[in-house]
């Protein structure tokens, strides 16, 4: 086995140090991916953003489906920036590259707080600047822990990739979360969520004809909507702190001596996995 051969070739002390470094890399990747996943939780806060823009521009024709432009642009830019993130990793190393990408992401969130009055400007700040920072961090974070945790690669990879899903809890309105800063009582409109709003699938199907012709309803509580800029500033600060802590825990492992066929094969497998992502 690869893990046994690597462990047998190294003395006890270096093995302990490598395990400690691998665990630190895993924790750092967890914290950073927890912030990167907030980009994919955009759909939970999009209704409030659209309602805020309509509040500032009463004549605006913005609707909920226009929020797709914001999310799609962010996903596309994040994917493109990921290519440059890999090159940035080779040049600066994991910690500095992560700090650079995290700083760009936080700057984008601050810009988003200042451009909520315009859909176009918000698309540039959140869908471009924030997504660039997120894309720069994404591949940089995955490389150190995948190389360090070669023995527990499957477990480590699953933990890291599930972190974006964990960040969905930051924006869930049915429980205390970061969105509670906007809607303290639980609902997106500033009111508590009553148990009666949860209906069965059969009741939903019965109401479909009526719902299909109903007009779109937007959040109208101005007091709640006015807190959105502060929410983005809070996100910028929180993401920057978590990314700084995670970057401090990241480090590239020392290179393995290329005197074993198994180690060469192991490195080729790791490269194949990185290319696949």
TrEMBL record:
PANTHER family: RIBOFLAVIN TRANSPORTER RIBJ. It is a multi-pass membrane protein. GO terms for cellular component: membrane. This is ABC1 family beta-lactamase, putative. It is found in: Membrane. It comes from the Eukaryota. Keywords: Membrane, Transmembrane, Transmembrane helix, Transport. It comes from Eimeria mitis. InterPro entries: MFS_Riboflavin_Transporter (IPR052983). The chain crosses the membrane at residues 26-53, 68-86, 107-133, 230-250.
């Amino acid at each position: 086995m690869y893990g046994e051969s690597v462990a047998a070739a190294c003395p006890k002390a270096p093995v302990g140090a490598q395990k400690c470094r691998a665990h630190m890399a895993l924790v750092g990747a967890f914290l950073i991916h927890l912030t990167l996943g907030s980009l994919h939780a955009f759909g939970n806060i999009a209704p409030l953003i659209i309602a805020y823009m309509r509040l500032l521009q009463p004549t605006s024709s913005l609707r909920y489906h226009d929020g797709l432009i914001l999310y799609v642009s962010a996903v596309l830019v994040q994917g493109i920036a990921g290519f440059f993130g890999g090159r940035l990793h080779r040049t600066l190393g994991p910690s500095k590259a992560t700090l650079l990408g995290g700083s760009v992401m936080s700057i984008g969130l601050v810009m988003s707080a200042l451009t909520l009055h315009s859909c176009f400007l918000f698309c540039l700040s959140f869908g471009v600047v924030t997504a660039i920072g997120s894309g720069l961090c994404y591949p940089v974070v995955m490389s150190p822990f995948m190389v360090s945790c070669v023995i527990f690669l499957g477990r480590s990879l699953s933990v890291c990739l599930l972190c974006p899903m964990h960040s969905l809890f930051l924006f869930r309105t049915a429980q205390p979360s970061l969105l509670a800063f906007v809607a303290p009582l639980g609902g997106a409109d500033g009111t508590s969520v009553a148990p009666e709003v949860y209906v069965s699938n059969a009741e939903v199907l019965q109401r479909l004809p009526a719902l299909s012709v109903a007009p779109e309803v937007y959040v109208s509580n101005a007091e709640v909507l006015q807190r959105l800029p502060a929410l983005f500033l809070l996100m910028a600060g929180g993401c920057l702190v978590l990314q700084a802590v995670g970057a401090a825990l990241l480090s590239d492992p020392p290179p393995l001596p290329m005197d074993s066929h198994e180690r060469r094969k192991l490195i080729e497998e790791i490269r194949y996995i990185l290319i696949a992502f």
